[in-house]
Amino acid sequence: MNLFEIGWNEFFAKHFEPFKNQGLIPARIACEKKYIYIVYTEKGELMAEVSGKFRFDAQTPKDFPAVGDWVAINLRPGEDKAIIHGVLPRKTSFSRKVAGSRTDEQVLAANIDILFLVSALDRDFNVRRIERFLMPCYNSNSRPIILLNKSDLCQDIEEKVRAVESIAFDVPIHTMSASENKGIEVLGTYLNKGITAALLGSSGVGKSTIINRLLGEERQEIRSVSTSTGKGKHVTVHRELILIPDGGLIIDTPGLRELQLWGDEDNLKESFKDIEELAQTCRFRDCGHKHEPGCAVKKAIQQGSLDMKRFKNYLKLQREIRLLATRRKEQWFHSKQAVHKRIELKRKGFFRE
Ligand code: GDP
Ligand code: ZN
Questions:
Q1: Is residue 205 lining ligand 1, measured as CB closer than 6 Å?
Q2: Minimum CA distance residue for ligand 1 atom 17
C-alpha cells in the first residue's frame, strides 16, 4: 500500500514528526470493533489496539481513534497486533454529541475530504430534507457535493435541480441514475488518489448502489476482511474505509448512515445565510420575524424573494436545535460529574440547596 493512496499528505506528515522520532510508523484506521482496530499501513493491513498508556491518558470518547483517523503504531516482532500510541490531529471530523457534557463528543469518522449528500429524485424528493443534511456538513469542514439520484424516475429534473440550487450556495449539484449506471462517472472527478469521501443521505436513496458501482465486481472482497480473534477463531469484519479501485477512498460506517439531525446554531446560520443576512436588516435586532414592524424577512417573503417554506423549515430546525441544546444541558445537570461538582461546591459553602 502506498501511503498517499490511502490519504497521507503533508498535513499528516508534519504532525507525525514527533512520532517518527520515536520509531513509530503511520497507519490509517479502516474499522473498529470493541476497541480492536484494523489499520492500513505501508506494509499492508494489520490488527491493532491502543497502548495501556493511551487508554489511561484518554479523557473522553473523542480521544480514541475513529474510522479515517491517522495513528502512530509500532509492531514488535512475533506479535500479531500492532500497538497504537497516538492519534494525529484531524483535518475534518464528523461527530455526534453523546449524552452528557459538551465535551462528550463521539467521532463517527475523521478526515473526510468530500461529503456526497445523496437524495432521490423520485416521489420522496424533498428540498427541506436536503437543507437538513447540509447543516452537519458545515460542522464537519468537509466539502459538500449534492447528488440527485434516481433521475430515471423523474419527469421534471431541471425544475428540481433549480429548487436545490436555491437552497445550496456554492455547492455543486449532479444528477444521476445509479441503477442505470448513468452519470456516476462524475464521482471520479472528485475521487482522486488519496481523497477520502463519504455518502450521506436518507435510507433508500441509493447510497449502497452508488458505492457498489464505484467498487465494481470485486466489491465483497474489497469490503470484507477475515481476521483472527487471537483464540484461533476467525471472524469477518467489514472495512469501513474502502479503497476504490480507480482511486480515492470511501468511508461507509453505520454511524454516518444513521446520522440524524444535530449541530448548533452556528451551523444553522451557515446553511441559511440568506435568512441570516436578511435578519441583519430588520429594524429590531431581536426581531422574531413575526409581527414586528420593519421586518426584512417578512418583507422578502411577501415580495417572493424568500420562500415561505424555506423560512418555516428554518424555524423548525431552529426549534429542534434549541430543544437539543436544552436536553443536553439537562443531561449534564443530572450527570455524575455535575452532581459531584455541586456536592463539592456545597461543601465549600458556595451555595445552599
Ligand atoms: P441506500 O439505503 O441509500 O443505501 O439505498 P440503496 O442503494 O440500498 O437503494 C435503495 C433502492 O433504490 C434499491 O432497490 C435500489 O436498487 C434502488 N435504486 C438505487 N439507485 C437507483 C436509481 O438510480 N434509480 C432507481 N429507479 N432505483 C434506484
Ligand atoms: Zn425580522
A1: yes
A2: 206
239 CB near ligand 1 (under 6 Å) = no
Residue whose C-alpha is closest to residue 107's, from 143, 141, 134, 84: 141
The CATH number of the domain covering residues in 265-340:
1.10.40.50
pLDDT of residue 230: 58
Let me know if the fold of 3-87 is the same as that of 93-219+233-252. Answer: no
Residue 92 corresponds to which cell in the numbers above? Answer: 475534518
**CB of 143 closer than 8 Å to CB of 91:** no
The class level of CATH for 93-219+233-252 reads alpha beta
Question: What is 3-87's CATH superfamily?
Answer: Nucleic acid-binding proteins (2.40.50.140)
Render pLDDT for 245-296 as a digit per residue (tens, 0 to 9). 999 999 998 877 665 545 567 777 777 888 999 999 999 988 989 889 999 9
Residue type, 177: S
252 lines ligand 1 (CB under 6 A): no
Where the chain has pLDDT below 70, the residues are 97-105, 139, 227-233, 257-264, 324, 327-342, 345-346, 348-353
pTM comes to 0.77
Helix (H, G, I), strand (E, B) or coil at 232: coil
Domain ranges for the chain? 3-87, 93-219+233-252, 265-340
Residue 178 CA to ligand 1 center (angstroms) comes to 7
- Here the cell at position 343 is 456536592
The SS3 call for residue 225 is strand
